[in-house]
Write a structure and sequence with these properties.
- The strands form 3 sheets. This protein has a 7-stranded mixed sheet, sandwiched between helices. The protein has a 4-stranded antiparallel sheet with strand order 9-10-13-12. A two-stranded parallel sheet has the order 1-11.
- By secondary structure, it is α/β, with parallel strands linked by helices.
- It contains 15 helices and 13 strands.
- It is globular.
- Strand 5, helix 7 and strand 6 form a beta-alpha-beta unit.
Length: 388
Amino acid sequence: MIQSKLPDVGTTIFTTMSKLSAEHQAINLGQGFPEFDPDDKLIELVHQAMKQGHNQYPYMPGVEILRQQIAVKINRLYFAEYNPETEVTVTNGATEALMSAILSVVHAGDEVIVIEPCYDSYAPSIRLAGGIPVYVPLEAPNTSHNSFKIDWDRVEQSISAKTKLMILNFPHNPTGITLNSSDLDSIEAILSRHNILLISDEVYEHIVFDEKPFLSLSTRPAIASRTFIISSFGKTYHTTGWKVGYCVAPAVLTSEFRRIHQFVVFTVSSPMQYAFAEYMQDPTTYEKLSFFYQIKHDFLFEALLQTPFKPIKSDGTFFLLADYSAISTEDELSFVRNLTIDHGVGLIPVSAFYKNPQSKEANNFLVRFCFAKTQETLENAILRLQAL
C-alpha cells in the first residue's frame, strides 16, 4: 500500500467547479484562465523558432536572450538590477518556480508563513518539503473596510524561531488587493528584525487598475536581497497552457534554486522561450494589459450592481469578489454549487482558499468571479444572474 504524502488533498475546487459547469452547461467564470488566444504575432514567433531549429534542450536556467529581456524589463519597471547569468531562471510556469523555491530553502520542521486566503499550491509544496504552513488570515471585509486588508502586526506575531520563509502574493488571488508604500515599509521593518526569507508571487504584476503602479518587492533593495520573485508569461500573454514563468533572486538564492529546478523539470520549452524573448522587446505587449482588463473589470462590476450581488472593486488580477448575503445564507461552497446547477453560472467560493473551507472564518458570503472572458461570455452570465 502507498502511504500518501498529501492524504487530505483531493480534486481541486477549480476542477470540481469546471466539471460541474460542463455537466450543467453553465457559464464558467470560476477557473482563472483567459478565454482568448494569444497574439497571432507571438504564435508566429513560436513557429519561426521551431523552423529555425530551436527544438532541443535549451540551457538549463533558460535561453540567454530571454533571461536578458527579463532583466531588462524588471530594471525598466522597478529600477532593480538582476544579473541574467546568475540571478534569472526561466521556469515551467510559476507553479514550478514556487515549488523549486520552497524546496530549495525549506527543511524538515521549518515553518513557513502563508497569508490566507491563498493560492492552493502553497501549502502542499511546503508540506512536501517537510515544512509546516503557519496561516495568517487577512481581515475580511466589514463595515469599516469594504475589501480584505493585511495586518502586518499579526503577521510579525506569527514569526517564531522556526520560521524560515514567508510567502506573499500581490496582486492577490483571490481578493484582488495589492500593496502600497506603507506595506513595503512594514515588510522592510519585519525583515530588519527577523532572519527570514520571502517568496513574492507576482504573476499578476501587469494587471493593476486605476493607473496605479505595481509595487514589486524588487523595488526595495533591502527586501529584494532576501526574496525569490516569481512571475508568469501565461498570465501576461494569455498563454497559461504554455507553462512558462521565471524566478529572479540574488545569486546565492538562485544557486540553490537551480539545484532543485534542474531535477524538477531540468529546463523549459525551447521555442516558447525564443518567442517570448523576441515578443517582449516591445514593452507595449505588457504595458497595455492593465487597460485591457480594466475594461472587463469595470463592466462586470457595474453589471453586478444590477443584480442582488454586492461587488467589491479589485486593485488587480483578473478576479473580482462579490458578496451574496442578500441572496442566500448558505455556506459558500453550497451557494456556488446551487448557483451552477440552478442558474447556470459557475463561480469559486473564497472559502476554498482557506486551510479549513468549512470553518466560520472562511465563510464570509463571498464568491470569486474571473473576468478574463469575452464580452459575450460576461454579458450572458450577467443575464443569468439578473434572474436571481
